[in-house]
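Changelog entry: the Ras-related protein Rab-44 record was regenerated in this release. Current contents:
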Amino acid sequence: LDSCIHTLLIGDRRFVLQLWDTAGQERYHSITKQVFRKADGVVVMYDITSAQSFTAVRYWLTCIQVRPFSAI
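Regenerated structure tokens:
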């Protein structure tokens, strides 16, 4: 599990950008779902060299759609 936190100042507003890379690993699914609940946005990526990675995108999109994003 890799993560990165970066604070952005845009105009007079401060934003915290948190990036989490779980590499789609099964053992991180529960953590990822918890992060989705508090997220204001989600980026789903896949490995272009892995058909399995591309297929898993549907699973992650379903997980994201379970939580209603009011700010997106």
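Residues 51-66 form the longest helix (16 residues).
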